[in-house]
Design a protein that fits this description.
The complex is a heterodimer of chains A (113) and B (114). Chain A has strands at 3-7, 10-14, 19-26, 30-38, 43-49, 56-58, 61-66, 71-76, 85-95, 98-103, 107-112. Chain A has 113 residues and is mostly beta strands. In chain B, strands 2, 4, 5, 6, 9, 10 and 11 form a 7-stranded mixed sheet that branches. In chain B, strands 1-3-8-7 form a 4-stranded antiparallel sheet, with no helix packed on it. The chains are: A mainly beta (113), B mainly beta (114).
Chain lengths: 113, 114
């Protein structure tokens, strides 16, 4: 069974801190790894990673994938209170047209003043 | 707003009633996915559909649950004879191509079974 594990489960930091969120996975027929941010409503897409070692950046957020060690990290620098959310890691797997996403349980990040 | 639209936002049903959840994908998206999120748990895959076809329903309970995505109109997730354990947030997501294209999620329907 495909498995995605995120750590830590929750995290409280002060505004301005840098955080690293972890995601490890065991899946058959890996296709891609995705990060989402979930506040009160719908998860919003952050990054899609398919190749090892290539960092993707968007403002203060960045992410990288290691396909050999089967993990990814999401970094947030200079955190702000608006970064408080649950960050979800998901792995797409499958062959042909039959792909699916397996989600981790998420890391709940709280950024305090 | 061309995002994924789900309705209703909140749905309350008594045990034994039927629940119908609707999802209109983003414009230009023909792949629809349904996920369930229980409290303190991650999103669990239920079913993947394209127009008029169920591609993968491996995550859907065999009884009481069904899904469709007709040629015209929204995708429907139907839960018959609901039980308390069906209470959850149900998210719909759509993508343009299915493979290697990110999902875009709706705001979810929160189902409460009393």
């Amino acid at each position: 069974e495909d498995k995605v594990v995120q750590s830590p489960l929750s995290l409280v930091v002060h505004e301005g801190d840098t955080v690293t969120l972890n995601c490890s996975y065991e899946v058959t027929n890996f296709r891609s790894l995705l990060w989402y941010k979930q506040e009160k409503k719908a998860p919003t897409f952050l990054f899609m990673l398919t190749s090892s070692g290539i960092e993707k950046k968007s403002g203060r957020l960045s992410s990288i994938l290691d396909k050999k060690e089967l993990f990814s990290i999401l970094n947030i620098t200079a955190t702000q209170t608006g970064d408080s959310a649950v960050y979800l890691c998901a792995v797409e797997s499958g062959t042909g047209t039959a792909s699916k996403l397996t989600f981790g349980t998420g890391t709940r990040l709280q950024v305090t003043l | 707003n061309a995002g994924v639209m789900q309705n209703p936002r909140h749905l309350v049903r008594r045990r034994g009633q039927e629940a119908r959840l609707r999802c209109s994908p983003m414009k230009g998206h023909s792949h629809v996915y349904w996920y369930r999120q229980l409290p303190e748990e991650g999103l669990k895959f239920m079913v993947y559909l394209q127009k008029e076809n169920i591609i993968d329903e491996s995550g859907m309970p065999k009884e009481r649950f069904s899904a469709e995505f007709p040629k015209e109109g929204p995708s429907i997730l139907r839960i018959q004879q609901v039980v308390r354990g069906d209470s959850a947030a149900y998210f719909c997501a759509s993508s343009q191509q299915g493979n290697n294209s990110p999902l875009h999620f709706g705001n979810g329907t929160r189902l409460t079974v009393t």
